[in-house]
Amino acid sequence: MHGPEESAPERVNAFSDGVFAIVITIMVLELKKPEEPTFGALFHLWPTWISYAVSYLFIAIVWVNHHYLLKYAKGASFRLIWGNFAHLFSVSLIPILTVWIAESKLAAVPVALYAGVFMLVNVTYLVLAWECLGVRRPTAAAVRTRKLLHIRSFFTISLFFLAMVVSFWFPYLGLGLICCCLGLYLRPEIPGKPGY
Amino acid sequence: MHGPEESAPERVNAFSDGVFAIVITIMVLELKKPEEPTFGALFHLWPTWISYAVSYLFIAIVWVNHHYLLKYAKGASFRLIWGNFAHLFSVSLIPILTVWIAESKLAAVPVALYAGVFMLVNVTYLVLAWECLGVRRPTAAAVRTRKLLHIRSFFTISLFFLAMVVSFWFPYLGLGLICCCLGLYLRPEIPGKPGY
Amino acid sequence: MHGPEESAPERVNAFSDGVFAIVITIMVLELKKPEEPTFGALFHLWPTWISYAVSYLFIAIVWVNHHYLLKYAKGASFRLIWGNFAHLFSVSLIPILTVWIAESKLAAVPVALYAGVFMLVNVTYLVLAWECLGVRRPTAAAVRTRKLLHIRSFFTISLFFLAMVVSFWFPYLGLGLICCCLGLYLRPEIPGKPGY
Amino acid sequence: MHGPEESAPERVNAFSDGVFAIVITIMVLELKKPEEPTFGALFHLWPTWISYAVSYLFIAIVWVNHHYLLKYAKGASFRLIWGNFAHLFSVSLIPILTVWIAESKLAAVPVALYAGVFMLVNVTYLVLAWECLGVRRPTAAAVRTRKLLHIRSFFTISLFFLAMVVSFWFPYLGLGLICCCLGLYLRPEIPGKPGY
């Protein structure tokens, strides 16, 4: 299908899917079963359960966007591979920060770092987007997609940065801002483009 | 094979298989080795071993049905991807509930929640089935498959709900009902259809 | 490539590879780092290191044979899928038994059960072989391959059973017999057949 | 695509990617969340975070080289499969040694063994390279690629050996040598060859 000289992105996809699958299920290992077989004991562990559900949703959103972007990749270039590794690295930090947030009951520092990790996820996504959309498809449609993607990215990166700063004083507000930013990525395609 | 505009379900399959493989083997990490190298110490841990075997079987049944359904998927639509994430989320809760059941020796609340999780697995499976069978293949055979699948699904969802309610008073009976429901899914295809 | 009616074995392969990859690396989590940064502390943990290396080799042998067999599979039939699940289930028990053997320093019961697990791996492999080689390729070469495979399988299953019985009195001898049996599977193809 | 007689390297790739994905994310499980929600508590854990980042980078470099090499593989021969298992085995030892280095704060023995593991990774890589580049592509370009690869490999293997010896007296210098060697592999292709 591909000669050895030009590299296919299939193995990059397979490796990324492996990492995403592990990261999204690693949190199950952090779930503790209640001490006693009662609803009371279960409700007592609510921060663990909520944090699992929320982080599952967030990682799913990141996967959907990764999946959307890598459809445009035609080859596994040096920059694509290393941009992807940087992206997966920042994704791999989500589980431990979620656990930290849950256990500290939304303290300032963990929430601020959580916003920082999502800023990193977004920055590395932008690097991937430059590589996937930038070089290989200089059509008019791609140019417009790229432009809208850049506007959205710079907007959400600024918002994540704001969330990070705000979290030091108002962690609940910071977490609300993070949720809003991620809502913007629920559909990977840009408004005004059919996408999927 | 697929242009970037229309999304192939291959990565959805690869990601789902990764999650299924992790969920089905995560329980091995919960297996404890006996304290002493004797059969007595091994038999003492029977709830752990039985629960591992039973949950392995149940997750295998869910995988077989998932595999059967996604063969019909022609593209990775928005609803397919999110229905799949919801399905995998409910599957990922099976291991921890099985451990809870085993350690509480079939107490009422864990068994009722176990039935609730399988109800969730079934509901999200129905959503996936609507997307996979409903939109893309409006042939006469597909209509009949879909109709039989719906009948079976509504029947088993009701049965799981009954099992959940019953478990609060008679957990052993509730677990028996769960096993019966899963038995209906042992073969994914609908009776009267060659299937596989 | 394949219509929805006839199922391709690709997803069975992908799922199996996921399970094998997890089972073979789960043992890394059991590896303990030495208490002190000296060779003495490292040598003190020799049963852990040896058992990791040996089980890695054994699971690699099982993977090579699985890989060899599933090349012959033309479709994912009901029996193939469930034979495969049974095979993977027995493989998933190898890590915990290896840890048990290492910690009990080759006590009788763990070694006997270890032999029993490998007997199970072999029996389920034979079921898979019946499905892969038996139905779909009734050529003269396949008949001969099948016959030689059956002879080898029945021979090694008997040897594993013998190892299990012997281990109750002489665990070291039992482990030696297990190693011999696995040596017979180092190359998956049958003598007198080019194979790979 | 491939007949059963000649084996395709796809499953070797899929299995390897699974192992790499698990090895690179297993270290997340070793990450401990800080005791208190403060930056001070986070900084206190710096050896854990640094070691995670560094080992992530090193395993990524090994994956990139593995990916580069296996593009040349035309079939899954006996030597390719077992060379690959040996390569993955040495890769799977990286996480535990990194943890050991971090906890012992760069003591002599862990750093020397770390250099030894990378020497092993490099030796098994060379075996894989012999199989992938040596047999199947006797073109002039391949001969030159092979020759340059051998020169680089023997050079870096000697350097890793030197790092191992040096570490017994000067562990910091040994670690510096390891970093230099890995820098040489940052781009898998050989200088003077377009590669990727």
Automatic annotation (TrEMBL), chains A, B, C, D:
The entry's keywords: Ion channel, Ion transport, Membrane, Potassium, Potassium channel, Potassium transport, Transmembrane, Transmembrane helix, Transport
Membrane topology: Multi-pass membrane protein
GO MF term set: potassium channel activity; proton channel activity
Major location category of this protein: membrane
Catalytic activity: K(+)(in) = K(+)(out)
Top-rank taxon: Bacteria
The keyword Transmembrane helix is assigned to this record: yes
One Gene Ontology cellular component annotation held by this UniProt entry: membrane
Pfam families, alphabetized: TMEM175
Compartment list: Membrane
InterPro entries attached to this UniProt entry: TMEM175-like
Transmembrane domains' residue ranges: 12-29, 49-69, 81-102, 108-133, 154-186
Similarity annotation: Belongs to the TMEM175 family.
Name of the protein this chain belongs to: DUF1211 domain-containing protein
Gene source species: Chitinophaga agrisoli
Lineage: Bacteria, Pseudomonadati, Bacteroidota, Chitinophagia, Chitinophagales
